[in-house]
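Notebook p. 47: complex prediction with glyceraldehyde-3-phosphate.
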Amino acid sequence: MPLVTSTKMFQDAYAGGYAIGAFNVNNMEIIQGIVDAAKEEKSPLILQVSAGARKYASPIYLRKLVEAAVEDSGLNIVLHLDHGEDFEICKMCIDDGFTSVMIDGSKHPFEENIALTKKVVEYAHAKGVVVEAELGKLAGIEDDVNVSEKDAAFTDPDQAAEFVERTGVDSLAIAIGTSHGAYKFKGEPRLDFQRLETITKLLPNTPLVLHGASTVLPEFVELCNKYGGNIPGAQGVPEDMIRQAAQLGVCKVNIDTDLRLAMTAAIRKVFMESPSEFDPRKYLGPGRTAIKKMVQHKIRNVLGSSNRL
Ligand SMILES: O=C(CO)COP(=O)(O)O
Ligand SMILES: O=C[C@H](O)COP(=O)(O)O
Ligand SMILES: [Zn+2]
Ligand SMILES: [Zn+2]
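Predicted complex, structure tokens below:
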């Protein structure tokens, strides 16, 4: 089985009202945990690599590990660049065999974002690679932010329609109130579902992407803290909101923080309970198992992508 693009995965997910998990990978244990879970759940899968991950593990190691995962699992897997910030990194990944890239031009003015995205789309499509772009600012929106500030940060539906039309991009990451990391909301979690519905109406059949979609399950924060961690006040996107988003055109759900928390909790537990242990396999192994359980939970209970191969 080869690396594949997300085109068919997204079509099926859109029609079925479920979403595909896009999980960030940084090393062998993380990749193995995720792929094992997807295999057991018979789920489509996107593995995504950030610039930071490429710097940490080196591009060739990550690519070869993902190739090994494809060969070993027999799964169709999408290899995706997460948050590519310029044309060069997108080109590098496309030339390197990635099947999907994100060009994140969201920090640029609208017209510049369009020009940059279009350039990546032209290069990628010529090589059979698909492209995700982003419109709107993902930074966490606090309760005391007023309506016009929120309007400026969240994705404008009319602009989204124009953006997709003019760039020919394959999927679009939108800002409706999520943010990266473990501290997403100060008060009650809230996402702008009305905005999401408007975007979906204006862009029927365009797969939407939700970044910053970790739930930050209290159980795992508590485990980290119990075993010597210090992560106070962490809060993520409730699982029901992810389910709701998947019904409204969101086909790709990005998850990194929840994997980090699961792995960290498991490793902390070994360190606390077995202080004389110093074989890395004895803590990286449980870390890998924790990743697998977390991904299995997401696929089965939140994203709805089990048995969708
Ligand atoms: O959006 C993400 C990667 O692009 C990850 O989001 P989380 O920090 O919520 O896991
Ligand atoms: O969107 C960000 C992802 O969580 C990746 O994070 P990173 O840049 O620390 O690798
Ligand atoms: Zn962004
Ligand atoms: Zn992201």
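Notes: The domain at 7-303 is CATH 3.20.20.70 (TIM Barrel). The chain has a mean pLDDT of 96.
Next step: compare against the earlier run before touching the bench.
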